[in-house]
Amino acid sequence: MPRRLSEVEKNIVRLFQGDLPLEPYPFRLAARELGLGEEELLARLKALQREGIMRRFGAALRHRKAGLVANAMIVWQVPEAEVATAGRKLASFREVTHCYQRQTRPEWPYNLYAVVHGSNRQQCEVLARRLAAAIGHYNYRLLYSTAELKKESMRYFVEDWGPPPRGGPQ
Amino acid sequence: MDQLDRRLLNLIQEEFPLVARPYQEIGRRLGLSEDEVIRKISKLKADGIIRRLGGVFEPRQLGYTSTLCALKVPPGRLAEVAEVVNSFPGVTHNYLREHDYNMWFTLIGPDRRHLEEVIRAIKEHTGITEFLELPVEHPFKIRVNFDLEAEV
Hints:
The structure holds two protein chains of two kinds. By secondary structure, chain A is an alpha+beta fold. Chain A is built from five helices and five strands; from the N terminus they run αααββαββαβ. Chain B has five helices and six strands, in the order H-H-H-E-E-H-E-E-H-E-E. In chain B, helix 2 crosses helix 3.
Protein backbone atom coordinates (compact mmCIF):
# COMPACT_ATOMS: atom_id res chain seq x y z
CA MET A 1 0.00 0.00 0.00
CA PRO A 2 1.28 3.47 -0.83
CA ARG A 3 1.83 5.76 2.13
CA ARG A 4 -0.49 8.71 2.68
CA LEU A 5 0.75 12.00 1.31
CA SER A 6 0.81 15.07 3.53
CA GLU A 7 -1.15 18.17 2.51
CA VAL A 8 2.10 19.92 1.58
CA GLU A 9 3.02 16.98 -0.68
CA LYS A 10 -0.41 17.03 -2.29
CA ASN A 11 0.04 20.74 -2.96
CA ILE A 12 3.42 20.00 -4.56
CA VAL A 13 1.75 17.43 -6.83
CA ARG A 14 -1.04 19.88 -7.68
CA LEU A 15 1.47 22.54 -8.64
CA PHE A 16 4.05 20.46 -10.51
CA GLN A 17 1.57 18.49 -12.57
CA GLY A 18 1.31 21.86 -14.34
CA ASP A 19 3.99 23.64 -16.27
CA LEU A 20 7.26 24.96 -14.84
CA PRO A 21 7.77 28.66 -15.71
CA LEU A 22 10.53 29.52 -18.15
CA GLU A 23 12.31 32.06 -16.00
CA PRO A 24 15.68 32.00 -14.26
CA TYR A 25 14.37 31.02 -10.81
CA PRO A 26 11.34 28.88 -11.65
CA PHE A 27 11.11 27.17 -8.25
CA ARG A 28 11.18 30.37 -6.23
CA LEU A 29 7.64 31.46 -7.04
CA ALA A 30 6.34 27.92 -6.54
CA ALA A 31 8.00 27.76 -3.14
CA ARG A 32 6.36 31.02 -2.12
CA GLU A 33 2.95 29.74 -3.20
CA LEU A 34 3.47 26.59 -1.16
CA GLY A 35 4.74 28.48 1.88
CA LEU A 36 8.11 26.71 1.69
CA GLY A 37 11.68 27.87 1.24
CA GLU A 38 13.17 27.32 -2.21
CA GLU A 39 15.76 24.87 -0.86
CA GLU A 40 13.15 22.97 1.08
CA LEU A 41 10.95 22.65 -2.00
CA LEU A 42 13.86 21.31 -4.07
CA ALA A 43 14.71 18.83 -1.33
CA ARG A 44 11.09 17.67 -1.18
CA LEU A 45 10.93 17.21 -4.95
CA LYS A 46 14.08 15.09 -4.80
CA ALA A 47 12.61 13.06 -1.96
CA LEU A 48 9.39 12.42 -3.92
CA GLN A 49 11.51 11.23 -6.81
CA ARG A 50 13.65 9.00 -4.60
CA GLU A 51 10.53 7.40 -3.17
CA GLY A 52 9.13 6.75 -6.64
CA ILE A 53 6.08 8.95 -6.03
CA MET A 54 7.35 11.24 -8.75
CA ARG A 55 8.53 9.03 -11.59
CA ARG A 56 10.69 11.80 -12.98
CA PHE A 57 10.80 15.54 -13.38
CA GLY A 58 11.29 17.09 -16.78
CA ALA A 59 9.89 17.45 -20.26
CA ALA A 60 6.92 15.47 -21.53
CA LEU A 61 7.09 15.27 -25.33
CA ARG A 62 4.72 14.80 -28.19
CA HIS A 63 6.79 12.01 -29.68
CA ARG A 64 5.19 12.23 -33.10
CA LYS A 65 6.26 15.85 -33.39
CA ALA A 66 9.72 14.89 -32.16
CA GLY A 67 10.09 12.64 -35.22
CA LEU A 68 9.14 9.30 -33.63
CA VAL A 69 6.17 8.77 -35.89
CA ALA A 70 5.83 5.00 -35.63
CA ASN A 71 4.42 3.69 -32.36
CA ALA A 72 3.63 0.04 -31.82
CA MET A 73 2.20 -1.76 -28.87
CA ILE A 74 3.57 -5.30 -29.17
CA VAL A 75 1.41 -7.88 -27.42
CA TRP A 76 2.72 -11.35 -26.61
CA GLN A 77 1.14 -14.60 -25.58
CA VAL A 78 3.64 -16.02 -23.12
CA PRO A 79 3.08 -19.10 -20.92
CA GLU A 80 2.36 -18.07 -17.32
CA ALA A 81 5.54 -19.72 -16.04
CA GLU A 82 7.70 -17.73 -18.44
CA VAL A 83 6.06 -14.33 -18.20
CA ALA A 84 8.18 -12.84 -15.39
CA THR A 85 11.46 -13.73 -17.11
CA ALA A 86 10.21 -12.54 -20.49
CA GLY A 87 8.90 -9.28 -19.00
CA ARG A 88 12.20 -8.50 -17.33
CA LYS A 89 14.05 -9.21 -20.56
CA LEU A 90 11.79 -6.96 -22.63
CA ALA A 91 12.11 -4.22 -20.04
CA SER A 92 15.90 -4.33 -20.29
CA PHE A 93 15.77 -3.05 -23.88
CA ARG A 94 16.41 0.67 -24.08
CA GLU A 95 13.92 0.97 -26.95
CA VAL A 96 11.03 -0.43 -24.89
CA THR A 97 9.40 2.50 -23.10
CA HIS A 98 6.63 0.60 -21.30
CA CYS A 99 6.35 -3.07 -20.41
CA TYR A 100 3.49 -4.63 -18.47
CA GLN A 101 1.91 -7.96 -17.75
CA ARG A 102 -1.87 -7.57 -18.03
CA GLN A 103 -4.87 -9.76 -17.35
CA THR A 104 -6.12 -11.81 -20.29
CA ARG A 105 -9.68 -12.32 -21.54
CA PRO A 106 -11.18 -15.30 -23.39
CA GLU A 107 -11.22 -13.19 -26.58
CA TRP A 108 -7.79 -11.65 -25.83
CA PRO A 109 -5.07 -14.16 -24.90
CA TYR A 110 -2.13 -11.71 -24.86
CA ASN A 111 -0.58 -11.17 -21.43
CA LEU A 112 2.65 -9.25 -22.02
CA TYR A 113 2.84 -5.76 -23.53
CA ALA A 114 5.81 -3.75 -24.79
CA VAL A 115 5.51 -0.27 -26.28
CA VAL A 116 8.13 0.81 -28.80
CA HIS A 117 8.66 3.94 -30.89
CA GLY A 118 10.60 4.45 -34.07
CA SER A 119 10.98 6.83 -36.96
CA ASN A 120 9.25 4.30 -39.22
CA ARG A 121 7.44 0.96 -39.10
CA GLN A 122 10.40 -0.99 -40.35
CA GLN A 123 12.38 0.02 -37.25
CA CYS A 124 9.54 -1.24 -35.05
CA GLU A 125 9.40 -4.54 -36.94
CA VAL A 126 13.14 -5.11 -36.75
CA LEU A 127 13.00 -4.38 -33.05
CA ALA A 128 10.05 -6.74 -32.54
CA ARG A 129 12.06 -9.55 -34.13
CA ARG A 130 15.01 -8.81 -31.85
CA LEU A 131 12.70 -8.87 -28.83
CA ALA A 132 11.13 -12.13 -30.00
CA ALA A 133 14.57 -13.68 -30.39
CA ALA A 134 15.48 -12.57 -26.86
CA ILE A 135 12.45 -13.95 -25.02
CA GLY A 136 11.58 -16.99 -27.14
CA HIS A 137 9.36 -17.12 -30.17
CA TYR A 138 5.92 -16.86 -28.67
CA ASN A 139 2.87 -15.69 -30.55
CA TYR A 140 2.86 -11.90 -30.84
CA ARG A 141 1.49 -9.07 -32.89
CA LEU A 142 2.22 -5.41 -33.45
CA LEU A 143 -0.59 -2.92 -32.99
CA TYR A 144 0.45 0.30 -34.67
CA SER A 145 -1.17 3.52 -33.61
CA THR A 146 -2.69 5.42 -36.51
CA ALA A 147 -3.97 8.45 -34.61
CA GLU A 148 -3.53 10.04 -31.24
CA LEU A 149 -7.01 11.02 -30.06
CA LYS A 150 -5.97 12.29 -26.65
CA LYS A 151 -2.76 12.69 -24.72
CA GLU A 152 -2.83 14.63 -21.50
CA SER A 153 -1.18 14.52 -18.13
CA MET A 154 -3.42 13.32 -15.35
CA ARG A 155 -4.44 16.02 -12.89
CA TYR A 156 -4.39 14.61 -9.38
CA PHE A 157 -6.09 15.95 -6.25
CA VAL A 158 -8.02 18.54 -8.24
CA GLU A 159 -11.55 17.77 -7.21
CA ASP A 160 -13.59 15.74 -4.85
CA TRP A 161 -13.92 12.42 -6.65
CA GLY A 162 -16.58 11.37 -4.18
CA PRO A 163 -19.71 10.87 -6.28
CA PRO A 164 -19.46 8.45 -9.18
CA PRO A 165 -19.18 10.14 -12.57
CA ARG A 166 -22.43 10.96 -14.27
CA GLY A 167 -20.11 11.40 -17.17
CA GLY A 168 -20.26 11.76 -20.87
CA PRO A 169 -21.13 14.82 -22.89
CA GLN A 170 -24.33 16.83 -22.30
CA MET B 1 15.31 20.03 -34.83
CA ASP B 2 19.08 19.84 -34.89
CA GLN B 3 21.51 17.69 -32.92
CA LEU B 4 21.73 20.27 -30.15
CA ASP B 5 17.92 20.26 -29.77
CA ARG B 6 18.00 16.48 -29.47
CA ARG B 7 20.70 16.63 -26.79
CA LEU B 8 18.70 19.27 -24.96
CA LEU B 9 15.51 17.16 -25.15
CA ASN B 10 17.25 14.04 -23.90
CA LEU B 11 18.79 16.00 -21.04
CA ILE B 12 15.57 17.69 -19.90
CA GLN B 13 13.57 14.46 -20.14
CA GLU B 14 15.93 12.39 -18.05
CA GLU B 15 18.06 14.67 -15.93
CA PHE B 16 16.29 17.97 -15.52
CA PRO B 17 18.35 19.53 -12.70
CA LEU B 18 16.40 20.18 -9.51
CA VAL B 19 18.39 23.27 -8.57
CA ALA B 20 17.50 26.93 -8.06
CA ARG B 21 18.61 27.95 -11.59
CA PRO B 22 17.97 24.83 -13.69
CA TYR B 23 18.19 26.54 -17.08
CA GLN B 24 21.62 27.94 -16.21
CA GLU B 25 22.74 24.44 -15.18
CA ILE B 26 21.39 22.90 -18.40
CA GLY B 27 23.25 25.61 -20.32
CA ARG B 28 26.45 24.83 -18.48
CA ARG B 29 26.22 21.19 -19.56
CA LEU B 30 25.45 22.03 -23.19
CA GLY B 31 27.69 25.08 -23.62
CA LEU B 32 24.77 27.53 -23.86
CA SER B 33 23.75 30.57 -21.85
CA GLU B 34 20.75 30.45 -19.52
CA ASP B 35 18.93 32.77 -21.88
CA GLU B 36 19.64 30.56 -24.90
CA VAL B 37 18.31 27.51 -23.06
CA ILE B 38 15.10 29.35 -22.14
CA ARG B 39 14.66 30.50 -25.73
CA LYS B 40 15.27 27.03 -27.15
CA ILE B 41 12.80 25.42 -24.75
CA SER B 42 10.20 28.13 -25.54
CA LYS B 43 10.61 27.37 -29.23
CA LEU B 44 10.27 23.59 -28.71
CA LYS B 45 7.09 24.28 -26.73
CA ALA B 46 5.73 26.65 -29.36
CA ASP B 47 6.42 23.98 -32.00
CA GLY B 48 4.44 21.48 -29.94
CA ILE B 49 7.39 19.13 -29.40
CA ILE B 50 7.44 19.71 -25.64
CA ARG B 51 3.98 19.23 -24.20
CA ARG B 52 4.80 20.15 -20.63
CA LEU B 53 7.68 20.69 -18.24
CA GLY B 54 7.03 19.39 -14.76
CA GLY B 55 6.60 16.35 -12.55
CA VAL B 56 5.43 12.98 -13.86
CA PHE B 57 3.73 11.19 -10.99
CA GLU B 58 3.08 7.54 -10.32
CA PRO B 59 -0.70 7.04 -9.97
CA ARG B 60 -0.45 4.08 -7.59
CA GLN B 61 1.86 5.94 -5.24
CA LEU B 62 -0.69 8.74 -5.04
CA GLY B 63 -3.40 6.24 -4.12
CA TYR B 64 -4.91 6.17 -7.62
CA THR B 65 -5.49 3.16 -9.82
CA SER B 66 -5.40 2.75 -13.60
CA THR B 67 -6.36 0.39 -16.39
CA LEU B 68 -6.26 -0.07 -20.16
CA CYS B 69 -9.38 -0.44 -22.29
CA ALA B 70 -9.83 -1.58 -25.88
CA LEU B 71 -12.99 -1.14 -27.94
CA LYS B 72 -14.20 -2.38 -31.30
CA VAL B 73 -15.68 0.77 -32.80
CA PRO B 74 -17.39 0.72 -36.21
CA PRO B 75 -15.23 2.90 -38.51
CA GLY B 76 -18.08 5.35 -39.14
CA ARG B 77 -18.49 6.06 -35.42
CA LEU B 78 -14.89 6.75 -34.40
CA ALA B 79 -15.17 10.52 -33.92
CA GLU B 80 -18.39 10.30 -31.98
CA VAL B 81 -17.17 7.51 -29.68
CA ALA B 82 -13.84 9.29 -29.15
CA GLU B 83 -15.73 12.37 -28.04
CA VAL B 84 -17.52 10.42 -25.32
CA VAL B 85 -14.37 8.55 -24.20
CA ASN B 86 -12.21 11.68 -24.15
CA SER B 87 -14.77 13.65 -22.16
CA PHE B 88 -13.74 11.83 -18.97
CA PRO B 89 -10.81 13.55 -17.22
CA GLY B 90 -9.33 10.20 -16.12
CA VAL B 91 -8.83 9.21 -19.77
CA THR B 92 -5.26 10.42 -20.30
CA HIS B 93 -4.23 8.64 -23.51
CA ASN B 94 -6.42 7.47 -26.36
CA TYR B 95 -5.05 5.95 -29.56
CA LEU B 96 -6.48 4.42 -32.68
CA ARG B 97 -4.65 1.20 -33.49
CA GLU B 98 -4.68 -1.11 -36.49
CA HIS B 99 -6.78 -3.99 -35.23
CA ASP B 100 -10.44 -4.96 -34.88
CA TYR B 101 -10.02 -3.59 -31.37
CA ASN B 102 -9.25 -0.18 -32.81
CA MET B 103 -9.59 2.26 -29.91
CA TRP B 104 -7.23 1.93 -26.94
CA PHE B 105 -7.33 4.22 -23.97
CA THR B 106 -5.84 4.45 -20.50
CA LEU B 107 -8.04 5.37 -17.57
CA ILE B 108 -6.91 6.67 -14.15
CA GLY B 109 -9.13 7.16 -11.12
CA PRO B 110 -9.11 7.25 -7.34
CA ASP B 111 -10.32 3.66 -6.93
CA ARG B 112 -11.62 0.58 -8.77
CA ARG B 113 -15.22 1.60 -8.24
CA HIS B 114 -14.61 4.90 -10.02
CA LEU B 115 -12.99 3.13 -13.00
CA GLU B 116 -15.93 0.75 -13.22
CA GLU B 117 -18.39 3.65 -13.13
CA VAL B 118 -16.57 5.43 -15.96
CA ILE B 119 -16.45 2.23 -18.03
CA ARG B 120 -20.15 1.63 -17.42
CA ALA B 121 -20.93 5.23 -18.43
CA ILE B 122 -18.86 4.91 -21.62
CA LYS B 123 -20.66 1.69 -22.56
CA GLU B 124 -24.00 3.29 -21.85
CA HIS B 125 -23.31 6.49 -23.81
CA THR B 126 -21.75 4.74 -26.82
CA GLY B 127 -23.60 1.42 -26.93
CA ILE B 128 -20.26 -0.29 -27.69
CA THR B 129 -20.41 -3.82 -26.33
CA GLU B 130 -17.13 -5.28 -27.59
CA PHE B 131 -15.04 -3.83 -24.84
CA LEU B 132 -11.93 -5.24 -23.18
CA GLU B 133 -10.66 -4.03 -19.85
CA LEU B 134 -7.09 -5.16 -19.22
CA PRO B 135 -5.74 -4.20 -15.79
CA VAL B 136 -2.04 -4.51 -15.04
CA GLU B 137 -0.93 -7.66 -13.24
CA HIS B 138 2.69 -6.64 -13.04
CA PRO B 139 4.58 -3.55 -14.27
CA PHE B 140 8.06 -4.29 -15.63
CA LYS B 141 8.92 -0.86 -16.98
CA ILE B 142 7.43 2.59 -17.24
CA ARG B 143 9.85 4.90 -18.94
CA VAL B 144 8.05 7.87 -20.31
CA ASN B 145 10.93 9.52 -22.07
CA PHE B 146 12.14 8.91 -25.58
CA ASP B 147 15.72 8.58 -26.73
CA LEU B 148 16.07 11.04 -29.59
CA GLU B 149 19.80 10.78 -30.10
CA ALA B 150 19.77 7.06 -30.78
CA GLU B 151 17.72 7.62 -33.91
CA VAL B 152 19.51 6.62 -37.09
